[in-house]
## 1
Amino acid sequence: RLAPQRGTPEHTRGIQRHPEPERRSRAAAASTMAAGELSRLLDQDGDGAIGDEAAERMERAEIARAQAESDAAEGERRLQVARQQFAEYAQSKATEAAGLGSMIRDLLAACDGVGSAELTKKVLEIKETMDAAEAEARAMASDASKDAKKAAVDTGKDAAPMETANGAGGGALAAAAAADDLDDGAAEAMDEDGASAALHDAAADLDPSMNFVERAKYIPLRLDMDERKLLRLLEAALHVSEYTDKVDVLTFRSKTQRITKQLKEICAIMCGLVVATDYRAGQDLIKDKDFEHNAQFFQRIFEIGRRHKVMNPEKMRSEYGKMIYLLQDSQMSDVQELLNFKLVKPMRTAHALLAEKNGLAMLKDGLMHQATAEIMHEGKPRIQVQREIKAKEKAREHLSRRYSHADLSAEEILTVLYSISDNNAYLRFNRDPVDRMIDFLKRYFDPKTPEPGFSLGITMGMGGARLSHNHERQYTYVMQSMMLWREVSNDMFKLWYLAEGDLLREGGYYQLTNTGQGLNRVQSAPQTNKAIHQVLARCQAKLGHWVGSSVVHLGDHNVPNALMFIDKYTQVPRILNPVALVVQRVEELCEDDGLRQYVESTFGGVDECRKTILADFFRHAFDGSGADNFFDAGSCIDGRLTSAWNWCSKIEKKSYYPVFSLAGFTGFDGGDFRS
C-alpha cells in the first residue's frame, strides 16, 4: 500500500499503482487453477463418469434431441436439394421447348410457298401448340427458380443462380438429376454446334494465368531434415493411437465424460511425443502435467504433419484423420479452458515465408516459371533434356542471388522454389491423368455422331445405369465432369488449406451423427463450400451449357465435413491414372505376337480394344449409379464421383479385365508407399 499523496482523490488512496504485475499474477493464478483441474481429471480413475442418475437421464435426452435436430436438418437439406433440382429440371425443359419452337419456326419458313396448303396448316397448328408449351415451361421454370431461391434464403443459405432461358446469367445449371431420371424424349434442341465448339475451347483454355503470388499462398513449405525427424515421430505416435475409436462413440453418459476422455487421449499422445524426443523432459511432463511449457513443440510437430500430408496425399492414410480430429477437439472451448494453450498454428507456406522476410517481389519475376517448371522427357532427345535442366538450375541460382538479403537467405529462397516445384510435381501426377482422359475422349469419340458399337448413350435400368442420355448428351456430361475434376485437382492445395481452416477453426461445432455409413462428425464448411462453388461457376461460365445437377454436398449426411470432401477428390487420380496407363500400354502389349493375336481376335485390334475400354468407362463410370436415390448419387457434383467408384468396384467382371491384368494393373487404391 502506498502512502496517500497530496492531491490524490480520496477514493484512490491506498490502491496499488502498478496494475500490470497484478494482472500477470491473476493470469498465473488462472493458469495454475486450469493446470490443477487438468491434473485432477487426468489422475482420476475411469473416464469422468457422473453418478447422478438425473444428470445421466438429462444427458441421454440431450443426445436424443441432438439426433432429432440432425435428422430434421438433413430433411430440410434434402427438401432444398429437391427444390433446386426441380428448378434446374424445369429450366432445362424450358430451354428445350424454346429450341423446338425455333426448329418449328424454321420448318414453317421453309414450307412457305413450297409445300402444300395442308402441310403449312399442320405446321402452323404445331407451332401454336409449341408456343403455348414454351410459355408454360418458361412460367414453370421461373416459379420453380423463385421458390428454390426463397427457400434457400429462408434456411439461411444462398441459392445457386439459375440459368436464364437464353443461356446467359449467373451460371449454367441445366438438367437436374430429376431430368436425367426421365428418358430423353424431347429432342435436344439447343444450338449443338455452338455448344460443341464451346466445350472443346473450354477444355483447351480453362486454366487461369500463371500467378505465383496467389498460388504461393497455399503451397506448403518443403520439410527440412530436422522436421522430417519430428514427422517420423509423429507418424509413429499416431499409428498406434486409437483416438477416434475411443472418443467418437455414443456410449458416454455425459458431456463431461466425453471431454475427460478427449483430454486423456490428447495428453497421452502429447506425453508420448515429448518422452520420445527428450526422456528427461518427458518425465517432468508426466509428473507435473505442465503441457503449456511445451506448447511451441506441440504446435510445431502437428503443423509439420499437416504440411507433409498436403504435399503427399498418398501418405498418412489413417494417421492424418486421427490427427485432424484430435486437433479439432483441442479447439473446443471446454478443452481449451483446461489445456490453456492451442495445438494449432497456421500452416507455413511459401508466401508466408517470403512475406515475413520481405521477399514477395521474387514471385513476380519472369524467371519463376523456368525455375520451378517440370522437365518432361517424353519425346525429347537426351541433349535437350539436359539443356532444360541446366537452364532451370541457372534460373534458380539467379533468383537466389538477386533476391537474397540480410533477412532472406539464399537457402530459404531455394526452399521456396523447391516447394513450388513440388506443387508442379503434384499437378503432374494428379491433374495430368484427367487431361489424358479428356484427350482420349476427344480423340476416339465424335461429340455428335457415335461410331457403330461404341456409342456413349445410356438408358436407365440397362447395365446398372440410373440416367438416360443419348450419345451427344453423355459426351457433354462426361467432358464437363472431367473438366470439373481437373479444376478441383488444379486448386487442391487451396481447397485443402481452406478445408483445414474450416475443420480447425476455434470454437468450431460439430455433431456426432449416424449418417448411414457409421458415426461421422457432421460440420459445416463455409470457406470450402464457397471455394468449390467458385470452381463450379468458373467451369459453367466457360462451357455455357451444363448437363446434370449443380448441387454440391458438403456438411450433410453424404459429405459430413471438409475432411471427407478432400478425401473424395484426392481419389480422382487414383481412378483415372490406372485407366489411362492401361489404354496407353495396349499398343506396347501387342508387340508380343501372342498378345497381339489375343487382342485382335477378342477386340478386333489395338484401337478397338482402347475404344472398348474407354466407351465402357465413359458410359458406366458416369451413369448415376452407386446409390438407390438421386440425393446420394445421380448427376449432382458428388454423384458423378460416386458413379466412378461404383464402376471401379466392378472392374473384375469386365470383358477387358485380362488386358488390365496384362498391363500390370493391381488395383485403384495405390496405398501408402510403406505398404
Note: The first strand starts at residue 511 and ends at 514.
## 2
Amino acid sequence: KLDLARDLVVFLEENFARLATLDQDPPAHRTDSGAAPQGEYAAPRLDQNQQKSVLFAICETLNAIIVAPGQNPKCRRESLQLRCQAVSSLTVILVTCNAHGTYRRLLSSFVRLLLGIVARIGAQSDQQLRLVACESLRVLEQEHPEASFVAPAHILSHCECEATSALQGYLCLLASVFGKRSRAVRDGGGGSGGGEIEEAESAGRPSLEDETRQAAVLLLERLEVLSPAMVLGASGDFLSVARAARINQRDLWASFYSLLHVLNPLLLSQVLASCAGAGYEVTARERLDAARALVASATHNSVCLPPSRTRQCLGKALWVLAGAAATAAASNAVGDFDKEAAALALALFPNGGDPRVAVSCKLHACLRLVRVLERGGAGGAGAQDLSGALLGRLERFWGEQCRQRRSEPLVAPIYRACRDFLREDPACTSASLAREATEILLDSYPEPTSRCLDAQLSASGRGCGFLHEAAAGLLRGWLPHADGTSRRDAALVRHYLPCLHKLLSSPQLDPRPLLSILLNYVRRGLMGQGEWAELGWVLRLVRQCLRHHATSVRALRDDLAELLVAISERARDPDTKDQCRLYSQVVASPEATKLCLLMFDADAPARGKAEGGALKGREGVKRNLFRRASGGLAGATASVEAPPALVTDFWVELGDGGEGMECVLRSENPELTVFSLDLAFACESENVAIEGVHLPVASSGAAVRLRPSVSRPLPATVEPRATYTDAEGRSWSGALRPISLGFEHFVSLGEGEPKWARPPVKCVKKLERGKVGGRSLLLLPPKFHVLLSQEEETGECTIETDFWPALEYIDDYLESL
C-alpha cells in the first residue's frame, strides 16, 4: 500500500519532534509550576530513554523502507519514489535531533547506507535514489562543518565513472566536499574531524593539491550537465574549489559565460554575484559581458517573453552595469565603459514590434542607464551624448508609430517609463530626458497624457516640489509670445485644467506663468462649445490661487485682475460675473491677504507673517477685516457681524503606529483646552469617508480613534473642520490644515482573511539589499492584498496585488520603510 506508506513517511517527518517528546502541552498553556491547567488533559512526558526508543523506532521504520527489496515491476516507479522520500525524511530527522552529537552511531549507520547507495555507479534503475542520496550527504556535510562523511577521493572517482542523469547529484556533492575541505585548509583547520563516521580512504591517495585540481577541472568539464538551480546552488563551493586549485579567473568566467549567456542570462548574473562574493576581482569587461547577454535576452525575445521575465532581465542588466561603472571608475576606464554602455542603451531601445509592456520597460531601462552614466561617467559627458541620441531615436520611433496609427496605446506605457524621473532634480540629465520625452505626448494625445499627469500629481500630494516644477515646465509651452501666439496649440489647455488645479495648490510654485497661460486661453476664446463649464474651471483655478497663495496676492494683483476681467467679459451668466466682481474687489483691497485667509480657510499661511503685518491670532483677523477702507468690500460696515474665524490655535495629525487609525490634536500652546469639540472630515475623493467625532473636552495631545470607510485604498487628502467653545465661552468654527492618507494608513486598517479578491498582478522592482527581506503580506481595506517577496542576495522584490492601482504609489511606501 504505497499511498499509505508515503503518507506515513511525510507524517513522521513533519511530526517528528512531537512524536519524540509527546509534549502535547506547550509552555504557554502550562501553569508556573509546569503542570497543565486544571481541568485539561496533560499528556505524560517521556524520559530520555523513552525518547531514544521512539527515535530509534522511527529511524528503523524509515530504514526498512529504504532497504526494502524490489517490488512488483508495475509499481517500481512508485516504490522508488517512496524510498527517495524516506531518505529525505530520515536526513531531516537526524539533522533536527542533532544526531552527530547525541546519536553518533545511528548517524554513522545511516551515512554508510547512503554511501552504499552512492557507490552503485552506472545503475539505471535507481538514478533518482542515488541523486537523493547525494543531496542528503551534501546536506549532512553542510550541517556539520566539523565532520567529514565522504572521502574526497571516492566521490572524485564516482564522478569520473558516472554517466547517467544522477551525475548532477554527484557533481554537487563533489563541489560541497572539496569546497568544505578547501575552506578548512584556508582557515588553518587542516581538514575535518569526522572520526568513525568518516568514510574510509584508501592508502596512497594523491596529494591534496592534485585532488583539488582534478575536482576543479572535472567540474569545469561537466558544468553543462548541471541544471540552472544546481549551478546556482553549487556555485559557492565550486568557486572555493577553483580558488584553491588556482584556476585562472578568465578561464573560469569563460566557462560560465559560454554555458549560460544564451541559455540563462539571469543565472549568469547570479553566478557573477557569487564570484564577487567569493573574493574574485570581477572586471568591468566581465560585467559588461553579463549585461550584454541580459540585454540580448530582453530585446531578441521581447515578443515571446512574459513581462515579468523582461523586467527581471532589464533589472539585472542595470544592476550589473552599475557595478561595472564603479569598477571602471576605480580602474580609470570610464571612457571605454561609456561607449559600451551607450551601445547597450541604443540596442535596448524599443522597436515597432515590441508589446506595450516591453516598450515601457525598455524605455525606463534606457533612462536608468543614462542616470548610471551621469553618476559614474566622466563628468556626465557620456550621459548627455546618450540622452541626445535616445531623444532622436524616440522622435523617430514616435513618428513611425503615428504613421502606422499605433501611437495612442503607447501614451500610457511611455509616461509610466518617465514618471519616476519627473520627480528627480531637474538638473539631472535623466530627468531632462524624461521631460523631453513627455513633451512629445502633450500635443499628440492630450486626453490620455493629461489623465496620466493628473493621476501622478494627485498621488504625490503637496510635498513633491520637483514633480510640480517638472509639470509646470511641461505646461510652459503654452506661454504666450508678444503677439499672443504660443509654441503649442493653446486650444489644448482645456485638457490640462485639472493639472493646473493641482499645481496652483503648491505654495512653493510661482503661479504667474500659469496665470499667463490661462489669460491667453480666455482672451483668445478657445473654449469651444463647453465655454460655460470651462470658464467655471478657470474661475475655480483663480479661487485655488487665492487660497494657496494668499500671502502673495499683492504681487499677483495685476495678473489676477486681468484674468478676472477677461473671464467677466466672456461670461454670459450672472453668477460667474458676480463671482468675478467679488474676487476683483478682494484682490484690489489693501487687506487682500487677510480677506483671502478668511474666505478660503488657508490657515497654514495665517500662522506666519502675511504681507502688511503679522497676524497674531483670530482677533487680529476679525478686528481688521470689515473696517471701512478704500477698495474694501462694498457695503461692509463695522456693525456687520464677523463670520467665524479660522481655527489657528491647533491642528490635527494622524497618529503613528498601531492598528486602525487615530488622529491626535496638536497645538503650539500645550495648555490649550477646548470644550464641546466637533470634528468633521471632508474628503475630495469618494474612495474614503470618515465619520465625525465629538469630544466634550479636548487638549493638546488628545488622541481620537477614527472610523474610516474605505471603498478603494487610493491616496486622498482629508480637510478637517472644527467647531468648539473656548475657555471664555466663545464659539469658533473653521478649517484645520489638511491631512493626507497614504499607503501606510491603509495597511494599518487592513483586516480579514488573506483571500485574493481577483487574480493578482505582478511586477518586479530593484530595491536595496535587505530593505524588506523575506515575504510580507499587507492587507488593504476593504478586501485587497499586497504580497512582497524579496531575495536577500539580489535585492529583487516581486510585488503581487489584486488591486493594481496600488502599484502606482507603493514605491513611496517602500522608500519610507
Note: The CA atoms of residues 140 and 740 lie 54 Å apart.
